[in-house]
Amino acid sequence: MIENSQAQKSLERLNEEQVKQLYMSLFNSENGKLVLEDLKNRCGIKTAYPIDGPMDPFRLAHFDGMRAVYLTIETMLKPMEKPATESEGGTDA
Fold it and tell me: pLDDT for 49-62, tens place per residue?
């Protein structure tokens, strides 16, 4: 297993597209798809908010944080959009 400081240094050398490729190679595998489905269930993506027990601001913040992590992973699995160029009609002339 790689140490945290080594992992951080490795990540700092990567651009956004390379990081997205890391996510894709991990989560597009069969095991990765199962883990992603498990995270979807655990992070409350299929529900608005948990309804068991009293709702307090700290619990809501925790729930929102879990959802944010899942949504970040999901975003990283989408292909990067390339900016439109003038030849592709990216400007109104």
Answer: 766 677 788 888 88
